Amino acid sequence: MDFRMNPGQLRIMVTGLHRGENPQPGAGIVRSIRRALPDAFIVALVYDALESGIYIEGGPDAVHAMVYPTSGADAYLDRLDAILHQSPADLFIPTLDAEIELLAHLPGELEARGLRFVLPDKATLQRRSKQHLPELAEACGVPVPRTIAVFDLAGARQAASELAFPLFVKGQYYDATKVENELQLAGAVSRLLAEWGAPAILQQRVHGPEFDVLGLGDGQGGTIGMCAIRKTALSDKGKGLGGMTVSDKRLLQICERLIGELKWCGPFEAEFMLDESTGAYCLIEINPRFPAWIDFPSMCGANFAAALVDRLATGAWPEPLPVCPAGHFYLRHQIEVHGRVDQLALLTTGTGFGQGQ
Predict the structure, then answer these.
(1) CA end-to-end span of the chain, whole Å?
(2) How far apart are alpha carbons 151 and 149 in whole angstroms?
(3) Does residue 132 sit in helix, strand or coil?
(4) pTM score over 0.85
(5) Whole-number Å distance between alpha carbons of 85 and 185
(6) What is the maximum span of the chain, computed from C-alpha positions, in angstroms?
(7) Are 189 and 222 in a shared domain?
(8) Number of structural domains in the chain
């Protein structure tokens, strides 16, 4: 990749460093960047001092505690200003849905702070939201499980009577819970409404294997690359603990139609179920960021995070990424990391730590 800036000068801000049972994408992005740009200076924004990606070998150079996006734009930008004063950065890669939802409304404010980023606009972000997924799928001729947005328990019970149990309850940003009866439904909907706000999303269950496609949209309806996997191991919460690359033109063509319709710009993850009764791929959701397994394709020769950094650094998309060959697999593996109490104290007090501040 042709980085016009001196790679040693790149200062990249990344969020979402949790690598536990439900990992976030940031740590994988950092690892991918290190493969291509080992000398880049990486500033991590974290929401918890115990995000394990803070402490891994080859992790970020500086770490700062961030306020939650739900605190609002003013609080978020104020904290960002304080962080940039301590640890200047040029490129910004937010990795969490709730952040992206907020930042899509603030492109001018980010540009005024000298940050380069790639984000979908507000209208595009809304079109791929869980509650509007059926309309997008219909426009692209893609099957989607029956999906109903609900705003309270009464609405959830009515929707469940139409969808039938078992079904999935999803938060508008995160979380999906399979429920088998009204009691479980009430608990899941109440929790998600309290945690993420309205609406909660009820989605019909589809029987079959799960598939994921990650990629980079060029904003013109095309892609810089895609990588498709079949999930081969799931946690108790349905999170992918393992996956294998697949070569399926039908699946990639579906994604091309979706990205072409949206003219998506930047990272995306499209999730599908292969309906065993019909043989059709059913679109489950589209996430506006890389998945947690983002570093896996870089091990197969397709470094999506580095391609994104190239775009941010140069203003132009690089050449299309190599195709990930079928038959490669990943397994999520737990290791121990270590830190120091003084680092926890610095993050807890909002000071942050790291070199080059």
Answers:
(1) 28
(2) 7
(3) helix
(4) yes
(5) 46
(6) 59
(7) no
(8) 3
